[in-house]
Specification:
Strand content: 15-25%
CATH class of the largest domain: Mainly Beta
Number of helices: 16
Number of strands: 16
Helix content: 40-55%
CATH superfamily of the largest domain: Jelly Rolls
Structural class: alpha+beta
CATH topology of the largest domain: Jelly Rolls
Length: 498
């Protein structure tokens, strides 16, 4: 190559390099290295030509020729980088990196052959000799070549891509790199598994998620055994609602979770709750959170976890044991009622009667305990944990209050038949006890004055609630009087006026 042509080529490489430095910050280190080599090659080329008239002129010629070849390689490399990493993305045409590597390799080979031809070397005989050598090397390195070709095919047909979550035999993880010879998979245990590309081409592997989804999701199965005394339809509904009514991170709202009865065993049925996970990285923690919500939902519905028949036969259950358990449960329920202002006027006998009607209702963090607008079947007593009262508005949820241990909520709907006025969501795992209408009815009919005491407490609480709602909605608070509430209680329970 003539000296002027080398200079022009070096100038082109410099322009390409400066453009890449400005437009591709991620490649700056690589481009800087190429420019440094370009400067050294230019110095060597000038120095080689300067030595041609001296005693070591032949050596100088070799140095100049080698520098010219190197400048050509750098020009081709920077031109390919500019084409594949700047121009094509601007035209919305993305190509796998391996295509760029193949193009650069082909250009390098063409440039080398052209240089040999300019240098007077017989390219035909060189290619013939190279073909024989290539055949020998291909036979000796067939496994390596299979991996290389496998890497090319995998990237060309995009059957696997960097960032995909995959399962290969007993390995599950995220693809972090696809090289010429292998594919690297990083597992959740922070281990990097290297799989030969040839193996991936010859065997089956699983890509998690659908390529047609904008955000791929992964269906997970959570299995649970439930006693056959529970209706399968009711169990499936409870399992589905445990996810639908809870805020569980990384659980997709759509597609919705669904539950099925898989099989029937000895005195229990095996159910599967199938939900969709949005982030495969946290599969086990999310499964654990879903199981916690499932267990709490089943307990609230009074559904027992199924156990093998032979284990049930080993349980000692007699009259004395049942009496002791019932007494312990009633003492616990009395303790819960004793801390509630609403039931402060009850006698010990009346409180004991009411305690027998309390039902334990645990909730897991994120569970919806009551929903605004629903029919009120129970009032709740919060024994442990923390819950938040939220107002549902067209613009979203707005917080109204925080409920702590000893709080009673849902009482207005239970005592008057009105729909729920707000949504209550568990901020932590909570222990609640619920009481239905029939549990209060007998006491209210026996002592009508209790309804008056309760109505005064409800009037005070309603005033606080409507004031909070008015502040959030810029409205005017309109709270009912205790007499108005007392009238609604009497109408709902069919009580005669005192």
């Amino acid at each position: 190559m003539f000296r002027d042509e080398v200079g022009y080529a070096a100038l082109v490489a410099l322009v390409l390099g400066l453009g890449l430095l400005a437009l591709r910050p991620a490649d700056r280190a690589s481009v800087r290295n190429h420019l440094v080599v370009l400067v050294l090659a230019a110095i060597c080329e000038v120095g080689g030509h300067a030595l041609e008239g001296s005693a070591v002129g032949r050596v100088g010629g070799w140095v100049a020729d080698a520098a010219a070849i190197l400048v050509g390689f750098i020009v081709l490399r920077l031109a390919a980088m500019f084409l594949f990493r700047v121009l094509l993305p601007v035209l919305r045409f993305e190509t796998p990196r391996i295509i760029e590597d193949l193009a650069v390799s082909a250009l390098f080979a063409a440039w080398a052959l052209m240089w040999f031809r300019l240098a007077g070397v017989d390219v035909g005989s060189l290619l013939a000799t190279s073909a024989v050598i290539t055949a020998v090397l291909a036979f000796a390195m067939k496994d390596t070549l299979g991996n290389v070709l496998g890497g090319v095919v995998l990237q060309l047909d995009e059957s696997i891509r960097v960032g995909d979550w995959v399962k290969v035999d007993d390995v599950s993880g995220r693809v972090v790199e696809i090289r010429w010879r292998h594919t690297a998979i990083e597992t959740r245990n922070r281990e990097t598994v290297v799989v030969p590309n040839g193996w991936l081409m010859a065997n089956r592997f699983t890509v998690i998620g659908s390529r047609s989804d904008p955000k791929p999701v992964w269906r997970r199965w959570v299995r649970v055994n439930v006693d056959l005394s529970a209706s399968p339809t009711a169990v499936c509904a409870a399992l589905e609602r445990s996810v639908r009514d809870a805020e569980i991170p990384n659980v997709a709202r759509e597609p919705a979770a669904n539950a099925v009865l898989l099989e029937i065993g000895a005195r229990y049925g095996t159910y599967a709750l199938r939900y969709y996970l949005t982030n495969p990285q946290v599969d086990d923690p999310t499964d654990s959170a879903v199981r916690a919500h499932v267990l709490a939902s089943l307990e609230r519905k009074g559904m027992k976890i199924g156990v093998p028949y032979q284990e049930e036969l080993q349980i000692r259950d007699n009259e004395a044991h049942r009496t002791q358990a019932a007494t312990k449960e009633r003492e616990r329920n009395n303790r819960v009622l004793a801390h509630c202002e609403m039931f402060g006027t009850l006698t010990e006998a009346e409180r004991d009667q009411l305690a027998s009607r309390l039902v334990h209702a645990p909730f897991v963090k994120g569970d919806t305990i009551t929903r605004q607008g629903d029919v009120a079947h129970w009032l709740y007593i919060l024994d442990a944990g923390r819950a938040e009262v939220l107002l549902e508005t067209p613009s979203g949820r707005r917080p109204l209050a925080t409920l702590l241990s000893g709080s009673v909520f849902g009482e207005m709907g239970l005592l008057t038949g009105e729909p729920r006025r707000a949504t209550v969501v568990a901020q932590t795992d909570v222990d609640c006890y619920r009481l239905d209408k029939s549990g209060l009815e007998a006491i209210l009919r026996a002592r009508t004055d209790i309804a008056g005491e309760i109505s005064r407490i409800l009037a005070s609480r309603e005033a606080d609630l409507v004031t909070a709602i008015a502040e959030r909605t810029n409205g005017t608070p309109h709270a009912s009087t205790s007499d108005a509430i007392l009238g609604r209680i009497r109408n709902f329970f069919g009580l005669e006026k005192a």
